Amino acid sequence: MNTHDKCVNQYKELIRTRPNYARGWELDKLNSCGIICDLIEKTKSKTLLDYGCGQGKQYTEDNVHKKYNFPMPTLYDPAVESHSNLPDEMFDGIISTDVLEHIPEVVLPSTFEYMFNHATKFLYLKIATKAAYTILPNGENAHTTVKPYKWWASTIKKYNTNNILVYLHESKGTNQKGLI
Q1: Is the pLDDT of residue 68 over 80?
Q2: Cα–Cα dist 80/85, whole Å
Q3: What pLDDT band is residue 63 in, cutting at 50, 70 and 90?
Q4: 3-179 belongs to which CATH class?
Q5: Smaller CB count within 10 Å for the chain: N or C?
Q6: What does the alpha-carbon distance between residue 102 and residue 79 come to, in Å, rounded to a whole number?
Q7: What pLDDT, on the 0 to 100 scale, is given for residue 9?
Q8: Does residue 115 register a pLDDT over 90?
Q9: Helix axes 149-159, 108-118, angle to 10 degrees
């Protein structure tokens, strides 16, 4: 079993044993939706992907997209069976909130390649830069890649060969944010 699959299995187990885990709370925190709405308006975006949407309840129950008046995104999360198919199509924007720090560093290159090859206008990335309170079933911290804002910014820039708009929003740290 590869690193990605091992990691996904840890999150499947968390969701199985803790029904509110990966519910989708992070999207409506730290003004994420306001920033996303600004990006959608600025880029005239119509199609979105929420990469790492968790259980997707922020849309299916909380209707956050209706509250902030933005299009319902396509939902992807490999640990949630109903959202586990990685889409092949292109999207105007990709949203990813409190996800990338959960991905092992060795898997991040393929994650960024996917994002930059499937977004045509913008990425909104909210990333925690500190350890999580949650411990995985295997005893490891849920934030497997804990790096400072500057590391994330320089790593993301390296993969942005199409020069699309990227808004990086740090959470659970110093709350740095802005276009990079």
Answers
A1: yes
A2: 9
A3: very high
A4: alpha beta
A5: N
A6: 12
A7: 95
A8: yes
A9: 50
Determine the Cα–Cα distance for residues 18 and 118; give it in Å rounded to an integer.
32
Assess contact for 166 and 94: CB atoms under 8 A: no
Report the pLDDT averaged over residues 33-50: 97
Q: What SS3 class is residue 132?
A: coil
Degrees to nearest 5, angle at CA 169 with 173 and 51? 115
For residue 40, give the amino acid letter: I
Q: Tens digits of per-residue pLDDT, 117-136?
A: 999 999 999 999 999 999 99
* Whether the Cβ atoms of residue 104 and residue 147 lie closer than 8 Å to each other: no
Distances (CA, A) of 107 to 37, 38, 118: 29, 30, 17
Q: Which two tokens stand for residue 136?
A: 């995985």
Give the tokens for residue 115: 């994002």
How far apart are alpha carbons 136 and 15 in whole angstroms?
11
